[in-house]
């Protein structure tokens, strides 16, 4: 399947508000926040920002600190994977070259991808492009595309019954959200080993909470965390602390 400059076609849907554009001529900026105490140098969390965010914003909101409140030993890379890095369809390659390959070279064995809003969408795209790379994917109120695709999924009886059909030769304006987002969500629905990796958190007053009934059947119920509040880091941070505390317990369990 050929990925064209598809993401540029639907980014106007994301631009109803302030945003950080960035400069895709430069490598994606990031800030490494090391784990505390006896740091677990085998585990790395890579964070993709929302449309109005970058490293500086996430630092201000204490995103790495929220992750460390749940799993103090992990290293965290806060990234400025802003709009510019999406618009030519090159986000998956950039994430591979800038983060995945260097992380492996540095000896990290367990990679966890976390994204909020636009970054949640980006996390789905990157996870689909790089199967088997991320041990867990944490989605914070992800943007999931147009309502018409969700209505199609609902009309089919839900995500577990929906059939996206054969993969097209190219992704374009007519099928971007079907191919880049919902096909991957359908993969989660069909494969317990895939969906067991995925976590979803959102604010109950979030404008994107309306998508949850459609995506929820693709995921493990215990890994869906509704929280009071809206589309804000204060909501996602609280959920991140709980999610990473649970992931830490899993990782520290005998035989894991």
From TrEMBL:
InterPro entries: AB_hydrolase_fold, Esterase-like. Signal peptide: none annotated. GO terms for molecular function: hydrolase activity. The keyword Ribosomal protein does not apply. Keywords: Hydrolase. This is S-formylglutathione hydrolase FrmB.
